[in-house]
RNA sequence: GGACGCUUAGCUCAGUUGGUUAGAGCGACUCGUUUACACCGAGUAGGCCGGGGGUUCGAAUCCCUCAGCGUCCACCA
């Protein structure tokens, strides 16, 4: 072990961190230990699309904090790491990379097998990078239980749930309108579609000159697919046409247009008549559904016009070209009434940004509004066999507080999203992902011998993880080529990571589910959190996690989103070598609040780097003061010759310990860290350490306080605390040291406590003495007078001042005025005017005013405390607090009264 | 259009079912380098808590209203 005076003056994180981490990893402490209460966090799996960003770093810092805290509370803490295959995101990434290398159409050119191999290789590389970064952050996760959303076990879970849902009628195949991304040739869920504001032209026109109704649209090219014109039922202008059918010729194509009345139409907008295009607009599809209108698709998967369904000359055109051509046609034919420039919200793909088309397609859907028979007793509300919908389960999970969202206001957002939730399209036309476990019967039936009559019984479709064999004929089954939405597998994450559906593994880990908390950014509340609740309540009948902690997004100094194109990205791997992991972690945890975006700057991280260095130097100093051979390893006890300063620091230490513990439990990490920093820097380093330089015999206390500080800081800054722990020679390692439990039986803590007050007054005196020195010729006696009135007698004052100043080498006033209280103070003297030098009349007036205020305050409190209704519903601690405040105010009132009388 | 959030010191933000004199970090300014630390210490200045109204003995905090900024959802065809 190095001697502390040989330690470098500044903490050098880069020489420390890797060694500390690998020592932890080797010792096996990341695995759940002992027999405490299960405490499990399943890590939100980062996408295997490359590298981690600060959002991930935030997630890791907070989760590691919670895990370490609970591990030290001797819970069976288990943090399961993993990565997400991220289906479309990863595939897109690889396609782009391959295109850069000159392969224009990677999927066509390579074929499914070769292309998938490329994606899998890339995903593996990403995984290795990510794991490295996660370790760099100091994350104490159990690497031996690492999972992947696309590994074999997770695939089993996916197939199992798919089958269950299919059997329950919750998954069905249907020909419906879906979001289609023409760029990547796949469907998208509603959540993967964003809107972009663009300038558009709104045309007001007739289909042809004989058609009686004028309509408006920004998408004239889709009008080939119109099958109706809808008007409001009460609109007098169009009443005579409702129910009639027309056959106008629109740009060379004959349409069949019914006029229908529907409440969804706003009579005030445009002409009050809406051309209904069921195949290319969700709203129109709904209207069409109500009136049983046919659906005519005019745009194909390639985002070009379908030749058979449009007028001559329009087939094969791109949407843009067709739009221009329709407009030109209408104008030429004199059908165009007006053209107006409008702002339009264009749906675009979240990834890639291409405009999304709404097309009717045969796809797989999860039905969220369909009642089904529950397989388990669910959420304590439903019995096995009861009927409910998935939506109802999702709502009840949060309404009943079985899952708590922090901060609470996101409840509303969550409920609102669920209420508007439509069936979830889960099939994707991409290759990378869980292939849909559905098999289709080949068209040609070649009957097996003797089963000729049964051929009619051949099943068209079988849901199965493995290739089925037809009982009646020799036709082969072919698996659906589509894959599942990536969120389908992530929805199962909490329990699939714990081994479900494997019976043995699941039974072994059953106690860890529901997991303790899900910590993630609020931006994926819908994508993921809601779907995990859906899956877990459906499959297991219980919530996936007890709490949800949502952190804010990390933005740059100007509040902009960090993005590569803006060049304002702070890469965790850049700042970690510069300032150390501990500093980066602190800057992501302190000065932030849940659900609120945070701005991060280099200066902020630098500030916390300074703090880690402060802690380092505190330790260095303490270790020079301590002769470890003298320190007995038995339990720390307050020395018999303890001074007031000693008692004060120890009382504060317990107080801070208690507060920090409570705050972490309440997810108030920032506040906990701030209080701890204030104590460490202001109380311990700047004040107590200074006294310890002069007063001897403090080594035990110094050693004890340092130990406690290291423990309390450990979840926030694991590396420096662990390293110092070792240097200081404390028993074991910081990571496994039990969290201190503060005895509060005989020692009431809190700011109202008399003892604490006394010590604090004492500290104020010290501070004032320092000020006195600084302002030696200014005589700021009045301020000192205020401090002295807090003490009971002159004897007390003398005693206290002596105690204090013994520890001070400061110089004080040269001459002591008559009548002042004086005390020896090391090399000099310190003096106070007990009466103060204030104007007595002014002072009396001031006191009377103060008295009035206090009396007022007191009567308000008493009024409230005598209010029976308030007393009934008010929580105990509030009442206690108010009572204490009342007593305190009473005391103050009495003391002021006395002083007023004297004057 | 609906919902949510933000507005507090020059900057970044705390402020716990209303409580006495509104806090911290950074920055600014003054002073200080003698043995833990200049990645330091001791101090100082700086606030009509976005505007207006209300409830209350008492409001940054609760209610109403207006304004600016931001986010999400839905979308008008």
Biggest sheet, spatial arrangement of strands: 6-5-16-20
Largest sheet: 4 strands, antiparallel
Fraction in helix = 40-55%
Provide mean pLDDT, rounded. 84
Q: Total strand count, please?
A: 31
Q: Separation of termini?
A: 65 Å
> Any idea what the radius of gyration is?
36 Å
Count of helix runs = 26
Q: What structural class do helix, strand and pairing data support? A: alpha+beta
Work out the oligomeric state of the chains in this entry.
single chain
The dominant shape is globular
How would you describe this structure in keywords?
903 residues, four-stranded mixed beta sheet, 26 helices, globular, RNA-binding
Which helices and strands, and how do they pair?
Layout: H1 17-27, E1 38-42, H2 54-72, E2 76-80, E3 82-83, H3 87-100, H4 106-136, E4 147-148, H5 152-167, E5 171-181, E6 186-188, E7 193-205, E8 215-217, E9 228-231, E10 245-246, E11 249-250, E12 253-254, E13 257-261, E14 273-276, H6 282-291, H7 319-332, E15 336-349, E16 357-366, E17 372-373, E18 387-388, H8 390-399, E19 404-406, H9 410-419, E20 424-425, E21 427-428, E22 438-441, E23 461-463, E24 477-479, E25 483-484, H10 486-490, H11 493-496, H12 503-509, E26 515-521, H13 525-539, E27 545-551, E28 554-555, H14 572-579, H15 581-589, E29 598-599, H16 602-625, H17 644-665, H18 669-694, H19 699-713, H20 718-728, H21 754-774, H22 781-788, H23 794-806, E30 821-825, E31 828-832, H24 840-866, H25 868-873, H26 876-902
Parallel strand pairs: 1-2, 3-4, 9-13, 19-27, 26-27, 28-29
Antiparallel strand pairs: 5-6, 5-16, 7-8, 7-15, 9-14, 10-13, 11-12, 16-20, 17-18, 21-25, 22-23, 22-24, 30-31
The protein binds one RNA strand of 77 nucleotides through strand 8, strand 14, strand 15, helix 9 and strand 29.
């Amino acid at each position: 072990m190095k001697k502390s005076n040989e330690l470098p003056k500044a903490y050098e994180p880069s020489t420390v961190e890797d060694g500390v981490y690998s020592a932890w990893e080797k010792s096996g402490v990341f695995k759940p230990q002992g027999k405490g209460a299960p405490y499990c966090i399943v890590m939100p799996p980062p996408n295997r699309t490359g590298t981690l960003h600060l959002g991930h770093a935030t997630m890791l810092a907070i989760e590691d904090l919670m895990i370490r805290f609970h591990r030290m509370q001797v819970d069976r803490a288990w943090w399961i790491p993993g990565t997400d295959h991220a289906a479309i995101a990863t595939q897109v990434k690889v396609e782009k990379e391959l295109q850069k290398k000159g392969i224009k159409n990677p999927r066509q050119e390579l074929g499914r097998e070769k292309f998938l191999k490329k994606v899998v290789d890339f995903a593996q590389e990403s995984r290795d990078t990510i794991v490295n970064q996660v370790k760099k952050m100091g994350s104490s996760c159990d690497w031996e239980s690492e999972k992947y959303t696309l590994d074999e076990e997770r695939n089993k879970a996916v197939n199992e749930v798919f089958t269950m849902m299919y059997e329950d009628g919750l998954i069905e195949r249907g020909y419906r309108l879906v979001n289609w991304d023409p760029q990547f040739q796949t469907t998208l869920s509603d959540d993967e579609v964003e809107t972009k504001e663009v300038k558009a032209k709104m045309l007001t026109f007739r289909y042809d000159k004989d058609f009686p109704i004028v309509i408006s649209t920004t998408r004239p090219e889709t009008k080939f697919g119109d099958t109706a014109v809808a008007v409001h039922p009460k609109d007098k202008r169009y009443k005579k046409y409702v129910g009639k059918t027309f056959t106008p010729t629109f740009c060379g194509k004959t349409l069949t247009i019914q006029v229908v009345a529907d409440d969804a139409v706003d009579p005030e907008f445009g002409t009050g008549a809406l051309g209904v295009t069921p195949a290319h607009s969700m709203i129109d599809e709904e209207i069409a559904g109500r009136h049983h209108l046919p659906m005519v698709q005019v745009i194909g998967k390639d985002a070009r016009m379908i030749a058979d369904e449009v007028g001559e000359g329009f087939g094969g055109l791109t949407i843009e070209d067709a739009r221009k051509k329709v407009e030109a046609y209408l104008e030429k034919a004199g059908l165009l009434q007006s053209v107006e420039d409008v702002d339009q919200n264009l749906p675009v793909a979240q990834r890639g940004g291409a405009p999304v088309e709404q097309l009717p397609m045969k796809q797989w859907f999860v039905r969220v509004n369909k009642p089904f028979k529950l397989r388990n007793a669910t959420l304590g509300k439903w019995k096995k066999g009861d009927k409910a919908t998935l939506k109802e389960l999702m709502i009840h999970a949060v309404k009943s507080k079985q899952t708590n969202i922090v901060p609470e206001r996101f409840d509303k957002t969550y409920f609102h999203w669920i209420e508007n939730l439509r069936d979830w399209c889960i099939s994707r036309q991409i290759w990378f992902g869980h292939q849909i476990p559905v098999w289709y019967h080949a068209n040609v039936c070649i009957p097996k011998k003797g089963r000729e009559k049964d051929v009619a019984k051949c099943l068209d479709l079988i849901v199965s993880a493995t290739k089925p064999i037809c009982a009646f004929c020799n036709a082969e089954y072919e698996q659906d080529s589509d894959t599942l939405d990536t969120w389908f597998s992530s929805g199962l994450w909490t329990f699939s990571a714990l081994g479900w559906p494997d019976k043995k593994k699941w039974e072994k880990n059953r106690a860890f589910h529901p997991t303790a908390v899900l910590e993630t950014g609020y931006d994926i509340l819908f994508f993921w959190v809601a779907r995990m609740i859906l899956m877990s309540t459906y499959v297991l009948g219980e919530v996936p996690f007890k709490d949800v902690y949502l952190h804010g997004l990390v933005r740059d100094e100007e509040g902009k989103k960090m993005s590569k194109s803006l060049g304002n990205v702070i890469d965790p791997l850049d700042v970690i070598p510069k300032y150390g992991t501990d500093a980066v972690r602190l800057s992501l945890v302190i000065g932030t609040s849940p659900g609120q975006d945070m701005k991060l700057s280099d200066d902020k991280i630098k500030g916390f780097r300074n703090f880690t260095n402060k802690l380092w130097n505190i330790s260095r100093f303490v270790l020079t003061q301590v002769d470890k051979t003298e320190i007995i390893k038995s339990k720390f006890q307050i020395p018999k010759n303890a001074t007031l300063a000693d008692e004060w620091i120890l009382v504060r230490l317990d107080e801070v310990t208690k507060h920090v513990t409570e705050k972490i439990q309440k997810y108030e990490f920032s506040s906990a860290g701030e209080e701890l920093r204030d104590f460490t820097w202001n109380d311990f380093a700047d004040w107590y350490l200074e006294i310890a330089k002069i007063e001897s015999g403090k080594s035990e206390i110094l050693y004890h306080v340092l130990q406690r500080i290291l423990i309390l800081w450990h979840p926030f800054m694991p590396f420096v605390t662990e390293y110092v722990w070792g240097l200081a020679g404390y028993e074991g390692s910081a990571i496994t040291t039990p969290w201190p439990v503060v005895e509060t039986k005989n020692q009431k803590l809190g700011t109202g406590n008399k003892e604490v007050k006394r010590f604090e007054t004492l500290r104020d005196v010290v501070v004032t003495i320092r000020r006195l020195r600084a302002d030696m010729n200014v005589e700021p006696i009045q301020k000192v007078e205020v401090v002295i009135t807090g003490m009971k007698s002159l004897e007390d004052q003398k005693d206290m001042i002596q105690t204090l100043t013994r520890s001070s080498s400061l110089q004080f006033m040269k001459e002591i005025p008559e009548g002042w209280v004086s005390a020896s103070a090391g090399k000099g003297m310190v003096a106070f005017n007990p009466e103060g030098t204030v104007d007595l009349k002014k002072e009396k007036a001031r006191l009377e005013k103060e008295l009035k205020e206090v009396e007022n305050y007191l009567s308000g409190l008493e009024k409230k405390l005598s209010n029976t209704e308030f007393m009934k519903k008010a929580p105990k601690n509030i009442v206690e607090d108010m009572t204490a405040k009342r007593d305190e105010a009473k005391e103050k009132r009495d003391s002021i009264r006395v002083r007023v009388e004297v004057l």
